[in-house]
Design goal:
single chain, 147 residues, mainly beta, Jelly Rolls, seven-stranded antiparallel beta sheet, five-stranded antiparallel beta sheet, 57% strand
């Protein structure tokens, strides 16, 4: 697991966790990868804003989105695929997902499940209910191997 601490545009701590889970053949050599890949964002004291922009290195297919909060009530969010930083993109989820203390998952019915190599993923938080300590989001994808 790779853990990196960065500052978001409001000066709050934003911890980004990137976790690779090799599946069926795993990490392969020569810069290729096939298998499952999970991107996890942990956003401290979330507010409605765009946060956590990361770049995806491979063409991928979305298979699952999970979210939960600690304390407070809930956070509504979507994940956008963007061609470039700061430019509006395409929502992965058909409607905003509401993460709760008990956790929420989406495993089907995605608006955009095919993610392009080199594009960016950005969490778009649309609403926060209660005093949420953190929002945790995991996007799980299957890497489409090079042919």
């Amino acid at each position: 697991m790779n853990v990196e601490t960065v500052l978001d545009s409001h000066g709050k701590r934003l911890r980004y966790l990137e976790e690779l889970e090799a599946a069926e053949g795993g990490g392969g050599g020569g810069g290729t990868f096939s298998g499952a890949l999970a991107f996890t964002w942990v956003i401290l004291e979330p507010i409605p804003e765009d946060v956590g922009q990361i770049r995806i290195p491979w063409e991928c297919r979305v298979i699952r989105v999970d979210g939960n909060v600690l304390a407070g009530m809930s956070c509504a969010f979507n994940i956008e695929e963007r061609d470039a930083p700061g430019i509006a993109g395409t929502n992965i989820l058909t409607v905003d997902m509401t993460a709760t203390v008990g956790g929420t998952s989406v495993i089907a019915g995605f608006n955009n499940s095919s993610l392009g190599s080199g594009n960016y993923l950005t969490v778009d938080i649309s609403a926060v209910t209660g005093n949420v300590d953190y929002l945790s989001i995991t996007l799980t994808v299957v890497v489409i191997p090079d042919v």
